[in-house]
Amino acid sequence: MTTTNTVTHNGLALDWAAGHGPITGALSATTGAYAVATVGTLAHMPPTWALAIGTVGALGHTATGLRQRLAARTISARAASWLLGSGWTTWALATNPLTWTALGSLAVIGVGMGAAARSVGLYEEARELVAIEAAERQVARELSAGRRAIAAEWVDRVQRVCGITLRVVAVEMWPTNTGFTIDAELPPGGTTYDRIARENARLSADARLPHGCTAAASPGIDQGRVLIDVTTVNVLAAEVPYPSEYSALSIHTGIPWGYRTNAEEICAYLREQCALVVGPTGSGKTNMVHVILAGFARADDILTWVIDLNAGSAGLPWIRAAMEPAGDGGKAVRPGIDWLAASHEEAHLMLDAALRVGDYRKRAYQDLMAKANTDLLPISREIPQIMLLIDEGAEILISRDPETRKLAQKIMKVIRMLRAMGIRTVLTALGATGAVLGDMMIRREAKTRVALTGGATEGMDLAKLFPGGTGLRIEQAPHKGTGFMGTPESPAALFGTWRILPNQIRDIVHATSDRHPYLDAMSAKAAGPDYARRWVAARTAWITAHQHTDSDSETGAGPAGNPPAGRGLNLSAHRTAPAAPAAAEEDALAEQFRRQIDAQFATTPEPGTDAQPEAPVRSGLNLSAHRAEDNAAQQAALTLLIAAGPAGTGASAIARDLDRYGTTRQTIAGWLKTWAEEGEAVRIGTGTKTRYVHHSHAPETPEGPAED
To answer: Which residues fall within 8 angstroms of residue 68, CB to CB, at 6 or more apart?
Structure first.
């Protein structure tokens, strides 16, 4: 059973275990002495007993004060209080405590006790502050001595190696205890910091620094100062996992890509800049791509489009994570990227859409930019930036293949023309060679540059990738996932990137699903059907069409039962064979993924599904090409409905914009009616005032709140 010292009476809490202050202590002592004197007089107590008790109390407090190392005046004040109290009690017992003389003298003693207690209390506080300051001065003297020793050592070292005499202004120890920074003044006569930077390797060797640690010189606060960052602990040798705290990021505040040798994060600011990431096979470039995509997924004002002609491997983990159940009752999860192109055809569609979006934004947002008094499109969650990551994109730009050259021309056009409209690129390459970096446009626009070396020396021309970055040596970054990174805000220097695994990619996709923005209505209208139908089954079937069986190998069939290339027309009407039992689970996941994508991105059903209105029967082969024009017109109408926003639109307005398809108003009215019945759109008004609003913009539908 526990007890408490707090008693509540009429709402007032009394803590009997609380200590006494100067006033309450004096009051307690005087009232106690008066009570003892009064009761002792009635009980005929010998007066000497009170004096004996006071003497014992004074001796006890003196011993306690000495053990606590209190000041002599504090010990004397406490002992005097005991002796005065016991002396008054002895006198009162011998005379009469109920006289005005006794009461007055006791009051004077109480005031004296309070004043003395307050005085010695302030004195003890002052003594404690003085002791703390003395300890801090001692630590400062010891630290200052250590810094002076470091300064003297490095002044001698720079003189010995570089022939320059420095005057050290300050030595700052890093909070991570992994090194320090020397701030020094250069000698007069026009000496520049790069004379020291060129000798970084020799300085590191002279200082006997561990492998992976460097002494890197960089510009100081002015051109007559130099900063020398000395790393004493190799933080790049250990594999560091990607941070598990997925807080929201923004294109304006920077996207973290890794950490420096002092363990500080380094961010890429890509609102106006493009980026180039170079790394040979085995250097950790693919992991770096996933770290970049993780940062983009955490941002609430970035949409990520990925081009990877190597089977889309860079973007697949960020899409397949959305195909798995979230584990919370079937909640739909959006992919970590907004569009993935794994073929030349899809890449052309993506780049054409990006060019149309950029061109349309220039005209549609003139009023917004004028209101913000800027020539850059204000990027926000409502108008997100499009980051186009092209894996091995630098190789595409230098390819001599005619089909790839067409892609290269469009990529260069995006880089050259769409900076102000919030469309930027991140290119990767296998090496920093003259062929890759020969194009002036790449070097001029890609101001954020990364070289993952992994110890590889072939094809890594750091001087060409980081012009002006003196003293950079590949041997300094021998570990996988390490290299050099330079930005306009931070000069090229050693850095390491985090390790990110597939399980963490899945966690990031699920954690950031609700954070991804949607493409603004103006841009979606410009992107057109190619963007709106990017997740339809016909364009995403390749994601899960990878199951192979023995029978496929024997008959020469390709993935998912498709005939091999060059075996005639690949007609959907000819592929009626049931799916293999081994692929049933994959087909179920793919179907669930398509349903989630349709719900999230307002795509239309594929031709031939139950939700598609039955097409008129035509004679001849059942070719999907026969329905291409109708599907394009229907998707264009849906895009216009989405772009109309909360104001909505009608069949006549859509028909005017679809003149090029030759679609009649009656056909469009039928589509709108069907979409309203399926919940894709909401009908508002009747008669001539009828208009339709897409469910993503409707404040409330008959079934409940509109989905976001």
So the answer is: none
